[in-house]
Each structure stands twice: as C-alpha cells, then as structure tokens.
C-alpha cells in the first residue's frame, strides 16, 4: 500500500468536500424566510364547565399554526393580549419557536410575567411549534428530539362529574368498576368540600374505601384538594388517607403559602404532594423544588409559556428528583401540545386528560386526537401537533356563553 504525504492529502480535500456537498443540496430542508405570518384568527367556545380560546396563526404559504389560550373566566382578556401582540407578529417569519419565544418574552416588554401575558405567549408558542413541524414535515416530538418512550400514561380527570346521583360511596365504587372496564388505570376527583374538617376526612375515607373494595389496586386515584387545607389539616388528611395509597394529593394548600409550608407538609405526609399548575415559569418553580415541597409538579403548557418553557421546567424538576404530571383541562390543541412536550421528559409520570371529552375532541379533529387504550396514549405521527382541527366549526357547534361570568354561581376553577 502506497503512502500519501500530507501535502497531497490536503490538496485533495477541497475537491472531495465539494463533490460530497453537491448531491446534498437538493435535500436541504425549507429555509427560514419563506413564510410570513399574515393574520391571527380567534375562536371562543364554551364546553361543559369552561370557556375555551383558540388562535390560528395564518401564513402566506398556506400553513396554519394551531394555538390555545384558554384561561377560564379570562379568555376575553387573553384575546386582548394577543391582539396587542399582532403588530409585532404579523409580517414576521415564525421559524424557530425558541427564537420567537425569546423575542416576545424578553425583547418586546419588561412586563412579560403574569397569567395573561404568559397565556398569550403560550398560545403563540404552541402555534409556532405547529408551524415549524408542518413546514419541515415532522411531528413536534421529532423536533424536540424524542420520543424517548413509546406511550404515555394518562388519568381521567374531573372523573367525579361522571359519577351517578346520589354521589355516595356506592356510586363511586360502581363507577370505578365501569372505568376499569373501559381501560383506564387512573382517575382524579375532587374531595368533598363541605362540612367540618372531620366530616370532610370521613367522607373522603368512605369513598376511597368503597373504591378499593370494588377495584382493588387496578385504579390509581388522584385527589383534587383545591387549595382547601391549612398545613395542619392537610397533614391530618394525609394520615387518614394513607391506608388507601392515593397517587397524590393535588394542591392541598393555597398557592400563596410559602414553599416552606409545602416542604413541611411533604415531609410529614405519606401521600405524595402534587402542585404547581399556578406556577408560571422555571424560575418560580425553583423555590418550591428547593424546599422539597412536592413529589410531583404539574406545569400547565397553556399558562407557563408553552412547549418551549414546560420542557425546561420538567428538566429543572429532574435535577431535584421530582416527577412531572402536567396539568390539563382545556381543548384539544392544549392537550396535544402538552403531550408532545412530554416526549422528551425523563421524569414524566402521568398526564391529566379530560376523558369525558374524548369523543367530542375525536369528532372535532377528524379522528386525529389521541385517546387512551389500556390507560396509555400514543403520540400523533402527523406533522406539527398532529391533529386536524377546525376551531371555527367547534365554536359554531358550541358557542361562547361566557361561563366565567357565572363563577360565583358555579364555583371557581
């Protein structure tokens, strides 16, 4: 074998590199600068107990990005925030969701925190990820680098709304059997919120006891506490519930409590504490994590800053050994956006899911909305978010009735 000296090798490299580059030029992905946003379209709808807000980001290339800015009782305010952003968005190329997030969150204003600005940012971020996937022909989960797991466990939230009347322990037990037969492996319901401290504990224990006798451990049970306890009463409740091993106690303390209060509760409770749907950024999560105030955090993709931010929150929680079970109770766009974002999260444990809306959302998305099978979901494989959703058609079928204005009569969410 003949030897090649250094000069001969270096002289030949430019030609070899040029030749290698030629056939790759035709397969290059579509470059940024080839799309421009032309308009934003908004659609409101009222379904069951909540008001929904969807946004479509239209481009001159015919690609439409789907976003959701649902904030129950405040959808009109979120829409106003989105309209404020229109002059800064229309005419721009939406390529690079991370770049667009940085621009909107930090360069347009110094006042980007708070539930309304954050929800508006989330809606646009979700739509930008949808556009990016569609323009490149891949699902969002591929853009994120996933998926690192083939399927995702979910739980039927607001499950108590499906329990028959009278909603006594026997009715819960019967519904639990039906739910297991339908393939679900986990549910969440709101604990009784009336009566004295002792009466609430007794009523909750009676329900859990009946459910465990009916289905054993076939159904994991999450308990929505709606910020209705003090640290003392939450500890007492946790001790009473321990024999029935709930999956978690959600938001047992008011969100305004210091992280140290959550830390004290978590240290004294055998029932895992879950919280965080009202926390809006990774920076706001850090004190809770440092206080060891939760075993499970529940970031909300529509409130925390969209797909771009929720995965960073999950990564931060992973450093503290904390699991992630995203909060979700909105429309089909938000559900799928949250699911896509979990595709790269090692500490994902389970996803909240409005099971009562599965049939409706399947109809509204031409069958592209994921539904559980044996308690698990699989990711859509179509480009972008992966669903075919006509927001205008849903708004026509379920007109906006401003349920948020009835909060004092219906209760807050």
Notable traits:
single chain, 413 residues, alpha/beta, six-stranded parallel beta sheet, three-stranded antiparallel beta sheet, 15 helices, globular
In terms of topology, how is this protein built?
Layout: H1 6-21, E1 37-47, E2 50-59, E3 64-68, H2 75-89, H3 97-107, H4 115-136, H5 140-143, E4 152-156, H6 169-181, E5 186-190, H7 197-215, E6 220-224, H8 231-241, E7 248-250, H9 259-268, E8 273-275, H10 282-290, E9 296-297, H11 306-319, E10 323-324, H12 332-341, E11 351-353, H13 358-364, E12 376-377, H14 391-397, H15 407-410
Parallel strand pairs: 4-11, 5-6, 6-7, 7-8, 8-9, 9-10
Antiparallel strand pairs: 1-2, 2-3, 4-12
Helix pairs in contact: 2-4, 3-4, 6-7, 7-8, 8-9, 9-10, 10-11, 11-12
Written description of the protein model:
This protein is of the alpha/beta class. It has 15 helices and twelve strands. The chain has helices at residues 6-21, 75-89, 97-107, 115-136, 140-143, 169-181, 197-215, 231-241, 259-268, 282-290, 306-319, 332-341, 358-364, 391-397, 407-410; strands at residues 37-47, 50-59, 64-68, 152-156, 186-190, 220-224, 248-250, 273-275, 296-297, 323-324, 351-353, 376-377. It has a six-stranded parallel beta sheet with strand order 5-6-7-8-9-10, with helices on one face. The protein has a three-stranded antiparallel beta sheet with strand order 1-2-3, sandwiched between helices. Strands 11-4-12 form a three-stranded mixed beta sheet, with no helix packed on it. Strand 2 and strand 3 (64-68) form a beta hairpin. Helix 10 runs parallel beside helix 11 and helix 11 (306-319) crosses helix 12. The longest helix has 22 residues, at 115-136. The chain is globular, with a radius of gyration of 24 Å. Mean pLDDT is 92; it is low at 1-28.
